[in-house]
């Protein structure tokens, strides 16, 4: 008699149909059936992490590097609750991710059973969508629906809560083909009339500027963006999530805007007469405060795949719902006809090129001082890494130094926690990125505080042979909070001094990883070479000054034109 | 600030009510009333939500509701072109002296008497929520023992367009 497939067989079958080759997970009582199914599985490889937070961030990094949906797994109760930060991290940055969580048997739900948590309730407000599967008959439909929701429209995390008995029961029900939801049809085709109006405004503009967000990277629209910018002669500034949307060595690239953005990019936002914003949600870190003074002279055009972002934070003149790639391609079609819009010689374009050149000069010239500074280290990293290298960051000063000084030339090669600002993201994300792109160099620009939150994943990287490099900018402080305390809180360094604990070299070595301490400017390049040549996961402990600041910045509550610490910028 | 009636057609899935109400609390929006009932479509329910906000907030709510996967259709109902009803059950203190007077007022409000005891009268009224508010205010004079309201439900009127106009 044909009993159909077991729940766990359905899960693996669906994963294969979704072309998932790697999952990041950690087992537990409620997940034993599923792990049993994976025991002899060769097409779907489980990467055993050492903490569930590592699993969800690694799946996130995997998705960012590849564009495919990342998959992670955790058991019921504490396993599931350990995923929470990472689920919200992925959802806030619109990253496609599916998380399977074990659950106590359906008969025990609601009894406060051992390792029971209301995963469905807890993850509801922090995911794009979530499911509790109560019958094996619904399992294949649910999994296929989850993958569809995660990686279409505005992407995000989806949780599938899988009770133990649902994993073990058999069912003949198997959903073939696409899952349809009556209320979910992500509208991605932009309105042609609005497109035409927008194109007209851009053609008429004398000082056009594009603000490129992460949506451009999610839509794989970077190449089209470059073409559009060239047709318009528009400068391109990016958000943190948009870094890599345009090659940062392109003469029209102005770098990142916002609180820790570049002075030039922020100035251009304030002086442009048409601002085309694509795939960006106007986060407060991008706009600064005083929203009425953001791009005060500009006609504001906002294109996003999520209509709820339009007019949410900043009222705009021309909202447009649509997939970034379709928006840009259609705009190019309209604009292409006007050969004269290129305006090779106009003053605005010259100014954009000039600002780009100044930043480039600043990024590439060697510092005269022989102190080991974050700038010098990242500039050396710039020269050392090849063009396919992927850089991830932790959160804090290390992240902003990387955003400023690391020159990203291609999309999906700068991976950072934007919306949630999750310390401890960069290292597991690097592991995920390396699994997705095993032939690319992968380096995590880290801080000592962030790295220590997830350093147990060194065991994962050693055991699973995932040779990424962690460059710890070690200032023995929680640097960004300390910087705020120095600048805005009267240097009262409360709760931010970490001291020189631990010895990162010995820590690395205890895991079987490569470790090296770097104290002199001259040794940076050699250390990077040693790390990449070692063939194992490596930790480079860069001893930098304790009290170094990442400047310029917009002070909290300040406007884009109120940047402080601009002394370092040549182009005031 | 204005009051908005929102009618939402939503798929019957476990947790969809929590997902809806959770969106309101997460975005810091008040719900004045919320009713859920079966709709004409199998497997779908209709929720009627009353909320307040300025134009931009109301627009935001509409978009956020549309983002919920189970939400199939969101209708922002206009009070002037909709039939809006609330049902109220109200137990008021009544004795020999004022019983007749209470019944007279109830009749004037087109309220039905559903139960009478020695000390109380129980009244039922189905009407526009503002009319119910006035009815309840009036009854307060006699002393309200218990009051139940179901919350608002609403349906749009089909307004026939004149041909040739």
Write a short abstract of this structure.
Chain A is of the alpha/beta class and 572 residues long. Chain A contains 23 helices and 20 strands. With 165 residues, chain B is of the alpha+beta class.
Essential attributes:
heterodimer; A: about 575 residues; Rossmann fold; six-stranded parallel beta sheet; 23 helices; B: about 160 residues; alpha+beta; Alpha-Beta Plaits; 2 domains; five-stranded antiparallel beta sheet; four-stranded antiparallel beta sheet
Helix/strand layout:
The complex is a heterodimer of chains A (572) and B (165).
Chain A: E1 5-6, H1 7-17, E2 22-25, H2 32-38, E3 45-48, H3 52-66, E4 70-74, H4 78-81, H5 84-92, E5 97-103, H6 119-123, E6 129-132, H7 139-150, E7 157-163, H8 164-168, E8 170-171, H9 192-204, E9 208-212, H10 214-218, H11 222-232, E10 235-238, E11 253-256, H12 263-271, E12 274-278, H13 284-287, E13 299-304, E14 318-321, H14 324-336, H15 347-364, H16 374-384, E15 390-393, H17 397-405, E16 414-415, H18 426-436, E17 442-447, H19 448-454, H20 457-463, E18 469-474, H21 479-488, H22 504-510, E19 514-518, H23 524-534, E20 538-543
Parallel strand pairs in A: 2-3, 2-4, 4-5, 5-7, 6-7, 9-10, 9-12, 10-11, 12-13, 13-14, 15-16, 15-17, 17-18, 18-20, 19-20
Antiparallel strand pairs in A: 1-8
Helix pairs in contact in A: 1-2, 1-7, 3-5, 3-18, 9-14, 11-14, 16-17, 16-23
Chain B: E1 2-11, H1 16-26, E2 33-38, E3 44-53, H2 55-67, E4 71-77, E5 82-93, H3 99-108, E6 112-116, E7 120-127, H4 129-139, E8 144-149, E9 153-156
Antiparallel strand pairs in B: 1-3, 1-4, 2-3, 5-7, 5-8, 5-9, 6-7
| Total count of domains of chain B | 2
- Give the oligomeric state: heterodimer
Question: Which of globular, elongated, flat, extended, rod-shaped describes the shape of chain A?
Answer: globular
- Helix content class of chain A: 25-40%
Order of helices and strands of chain B: EHEEHEEHEEHEE
β-strand amount of chain A: 15-25%
Based on CA atoms alone, the radius of gyration of chain B comes out at: 19 Å
The tally of beta strands of chain A, per DSSP, is 20
Q: Give the termini separation of chain A.
A: 79 Å
Give the rounded overall mean pLDDT of chain A.
94
Q: How many helix segments of chain B?
A: 4
| Whole-number count of domains of chain A | 3
Low-confidence stretches of chain B: none
- How many distinct beta strands of chain B? 9
What is the makeup of the main sheet of chain A? Answer: 6 strands, parallel
């Amino acid at each position: 008699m044909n009993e159909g497939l077991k729940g766990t067989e359905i899960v693996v079958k669906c994963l294969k149909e979704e072309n998932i080759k790697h999952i990041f997970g950690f087992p537990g009582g409620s997940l034993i059936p599923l792990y049993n199914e994976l025991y002899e599985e060769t097409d779907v490889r489980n990467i055993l992490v050492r903490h569930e937070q590592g699993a969800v961030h690694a799946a996130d990094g995997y998705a960012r590097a590849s564009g495919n949906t990342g998959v992670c797994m955790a058991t019921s109760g504490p396993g599931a609750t350990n995923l929470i930060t990472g689920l919200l991290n992925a959802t806030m940055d619109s990253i496609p991710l599916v998380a399977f969580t074990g659950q106590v048997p359906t008969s025990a739900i609601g009894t406060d059973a051992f390792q029971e948590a209301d995963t469905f309730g807890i993850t509801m407000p922090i995911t794009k969508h979530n499911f509790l599967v109560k019958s094996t008959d619904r399992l294949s439909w649910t999994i296929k629906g989850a993958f569809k929701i995660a990686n279409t429209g505005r992407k995000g995390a989806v949780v599938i809560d899988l009770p133990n008995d649902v994993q073990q029961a058999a069912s003949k029900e198997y959903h073939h083909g696409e899952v349809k939801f009556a209320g979910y049809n992500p509208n991605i085709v932009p309105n042609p009339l609005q497109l035409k109006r927008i194109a007209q405004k851009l053609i008429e503009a004398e000082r056009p500027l594009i603000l490129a967000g992460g949506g451009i990277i999610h839509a794989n629209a970077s190449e089209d963006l470059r073409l559009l910018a060239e047709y318009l002669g528009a400068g391109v500034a990016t958000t943190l999530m948009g870094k890599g949307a345009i090659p940062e060595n392109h003469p029209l690239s102005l770098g990142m805007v916002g609180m820790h953005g570049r002075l030039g990019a922020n100035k251009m936002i304030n002086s442009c007469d048409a601002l085309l914003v694509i795939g960006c949600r106007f986060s407060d870190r991008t706009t600064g405060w005083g929203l009425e003074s953001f791009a005060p002279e500009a006609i504001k055009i906002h294109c996003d795949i999520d209509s709820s972002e339009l007019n949410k934070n900043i009222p705009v003149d021309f909202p447009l719902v649509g997939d970034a790639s379709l928006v840009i391609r259609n705009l190019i079609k309209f604009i292409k006809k006007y050969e004269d819009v290129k305006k090779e010689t106009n003053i605005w374009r010259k100014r954009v090129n000039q600002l780009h050149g100044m930043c480039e000069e600043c990024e590439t010239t060697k510092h005269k001082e022989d102190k080991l500074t974050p700038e010098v280290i990242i500039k050396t990293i710039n020269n050392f890494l090849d063009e396919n290298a992927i850089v991830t960051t932790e959160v804090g000063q290390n992240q902003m130094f990387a955003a400023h000084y690391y020159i990203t030339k291609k999309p999906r090669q700068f991976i950072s926690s934007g919306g949630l600002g999750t310390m401890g993201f960069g290292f597991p994300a690097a592991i995920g990125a390396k699994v997705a792109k095993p032939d690319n160099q992968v380096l995590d620009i880290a801080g000592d505080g962030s790295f220590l939150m997830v350093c147990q994943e060194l065991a994962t990287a050693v055991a699973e042979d995932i040779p990424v490099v962690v460059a710890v900018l070690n200032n023995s402080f929680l640097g960004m909070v300390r910087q705020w305390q120095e600048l805005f809180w009267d240097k009262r360094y409360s709760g931010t001094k970490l001291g020189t604990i631990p010895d990162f070299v010995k820590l690395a070595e205890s895991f079987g990883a490569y470790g090296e301490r770097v104290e002199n400017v001259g040794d940076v390049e050699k250390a990077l070479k040693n790390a990449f040549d070692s063939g194992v996961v490596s930790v480079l402990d860069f001893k930098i000054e304790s009290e170094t600041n990442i400047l310029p910045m917009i002070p909290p509550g300040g406007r884009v034109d109120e940047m402080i610490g601009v002394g370092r910028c040549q182009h005031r | 600030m204005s009051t908005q009636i929102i009618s939402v057609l939503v798929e019957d899935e476990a947790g969809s009510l929590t997902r809806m109400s959770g969106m309101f609390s997460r975005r810091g929006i008040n719900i004045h009333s919320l009713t859920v009932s079966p709709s004409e479509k199998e497997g779908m329910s209709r929720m009627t939500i009353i909320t307040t906000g300025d134009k931009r907030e109301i627009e935001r709510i509409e978009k956020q509701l549309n983002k919920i996967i189970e939400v199939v259709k969101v209708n922002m109902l206009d009070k002037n072109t909709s039939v809006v009803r609330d049902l109220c059950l109200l137990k008021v203190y009544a004795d020999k002296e004022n019983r007749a007077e209470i019944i007279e007022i109830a009749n004037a409000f087109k309220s039905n008497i559903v139960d009478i005891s020695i000390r109380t009268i129980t009244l039922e009224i189905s009407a526009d929520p503002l009319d119910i508010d006035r009815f309840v205010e009036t009854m307060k004079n006699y002393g309200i023992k218990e009051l139940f309201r179901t919350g608002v439900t609403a349906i749009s009127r089909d307004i026939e367009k004149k041909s040739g106009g």
